UniProtKB/TrEMBL annotation:
<dbReference type="InterPro" id="IPR001849">
    <property type="entry name" value="PH_domain"/>
</dbReference>
<dbReference type="InterPro" id="IPR052589">
    <property type="entry name" value="Arf-GAP_dual-PH_domain"/>
</dbReference>
<keyword id="KW-0479">Metal-binding</keyword>
<dbReference type="InterPro" id="IPR011993">
    <property type="entry name" value="PH-like_dom_sf"/>
</dbReference>
<dbReference type="InterPro" id="IPR038508">
    <property type="entry name" value="ArfGAP_dom_sf"/>
</dbReference>
<dbReference type="GO" id="GO:0005096">
    <property type="term" value="F:GTPase activator activity"/>
</dbReference>
<dbReference type="Pfam" id="PF00169">
    <property type="entry name" value="PH"/>
</dbReference>
<dbReference type="Pfam" id="PF01412">
    <property type="entry name" value="ArfGap"/>
</dbReference>
<dbReference type="GO" id="GO:0008270">
    <property type="term" value="F:zinc ion binding"/>
</dbReference>
<protein>
    <recommendedName>
        <fullName>Pleckstrin domain-containing protein</fullName>
    </recommendedName>
</protein>
<dbReference type="GO" id="GO:0005547">
    <property type="term" value="F:phosphatidylinositol-3,4,5-trisphosphate binding"/>
</dbReference>
<dbReference type="InterPro" id="IPR037278">
    <property type="entry name" value="ARFGAP/RecO"/>
</dbReference>
<feature type="compositionally biased region" description="Low complexity">
    <location>
        <begin position="15"/>
        <end position="24"/>
    </location>
</feature>
<feature type="domain" description="Arf-GAP">
    <location>
        <begin position="68"/>
        <end position="188"/>
    </location>
</feature>
<feature type="region of interest" description="Disordered">
    <location>
        <begin position="1"/>
        <end position="28"/>
    </location>
</feature>
<dbReference type="InterPro" id="IPR001164">
    <property type="entry name" value="ArfGAP_dom"/>
</dbReference>
<feature type="compositionally biased region" description="Polar residues">
    <location>
        <begin position="1"/>
        <end position="14"/>
    </location>
</feature>
């Protein structure tokens, strides 16, 4: 009997110890579960933060890519396929202040002479949203309807083959003087005036002589006669602007001396270098001569070459 009692005590102690171990195991599992949940929560929080950060970067990249696409779409407009100022094909620059799409040559003039900010359309990362929005609702045709509203029908705009000086003269007249935005401004150019003082470089003796230049109509042709004064009736010489053997070439030119506002007339016989009292008068004479030669060449069905 004594042995059985001791056995029962041992069994009871073993059961209690086993229950304690199970209880302890349950508690440890519970702690591990809590720790795991805590760690998972922290992990999820970190993942959420990372995902949020990635999401913000993605939105920014998407915005940048969208803006890049919108800016490049400016070139897809039919009205922007050529330079606003010289007609050069496939322009890739924008004059921000004047809201026109221009070629690289005219971009240099806009930046240097007009002090306008010029942006490359291929470098969209340099654009701001405000700059894009200023171009989104306009195009070269719309802007030129304002800048060239009173441009005479006979006026010959510079082409991409003309010299940078001729383009510069045109751009200054168009934007700075705003000569074609109103009838009042256009009248200041005196485009109907066909005579005036100039200084001409001699053919043999390379000195400069003051002469009175007059555009004259002779039959269906036009000539430039130059005199010693406005009341003279006998010309010192003349320049035939309507030659059947070849086209007249005229362009702005820089004189290495002290003369300013110079332009050159090249015929099949001679090269004439002429200096005007002002930039406006040089502009007027160039247009008068270009219009005269263009009309004659169209009349004779002869292609005109006006570049040097």
């Amino acid at each position: 009997m004594k042995y059985l009692k001791n056995t029962n005590v041992s069994i009871t102690s073993a059961q209690q110890q086993q229950q304690q171990q199970q209880h302890q195991l349950v508690e440890e599992e519970a702690e591990e579960t809590n720790d795991c949940q805590s760690n998972c929560g922290e992990t999820r929080q970190r993942e959420y933060s990372i995902c949020s950060s990635i999401g913000e970067q993605t939105d920014e990249e998407q915005y940048s890519n969208h803006l890049d696409e919108m800016i490049k779409n400016l070139l897809l407009k039919r009205e922007n396929k050529t330079c606003s100022d010289c007609g050069s094909p496939d322009p890739v620059y924008a004059s921000i202040y004047y809201k026109v799409i221009i070629c690289s040559g005219c971009a240099v003039i806009h930046r240097k002479c007009l002090k306008s900010k010029v942006q490359s359309i291929n470098l969209s990362n340099e654009w701001s949203l405000d700059e894009y929005q200023s171009f989104s609702n306009t195009n070269n045709m719309i802007e030129n309807e304002s800048w060239e509203k009173y441009l005479p029908l006979s006026y010959i705009k510079p082409t991409f083959g003309d010299s940078s000086l001729l383009k510069e003269n045109w751009i200054l007249t168009k934007y700075i003087h705003q000569s074609f935005t109103s009838e009042k401004n256009l009248s200041k150019l005196k485009m109907d005036l066909t005579e005036g003082w100039i200084v001409k470089k001699g053919k043999v003796v390379k000195n400069w002589k003051k002469r009175w230049l007059r555009l004259c109509q002779v039959g269906d042709k036009k000539k430039l006669n130059y005199y010693r004064g406005p009341t003279e009736t006998t010309a010192c010489g003349s320049i035939d602007l309507c030659q059947d053997g070849g086209a007249i070439q005229i362009d702005c030119i820089n004189d290495n001396g002290k003369r300013t506002n110079c332009f050159v007339i090249c015929t099949s016989k001679r090269r004439y270098l002429i200096s005007c009292p002002s930039q406006e008068e040089m502009f007027r004479w160039i247009q008068l001569i270009r219009s005269s030669t263009n009309y004659y060449n169209q009349f004779k069905n002869i292609p005109q070459q006006i570049t040097i």
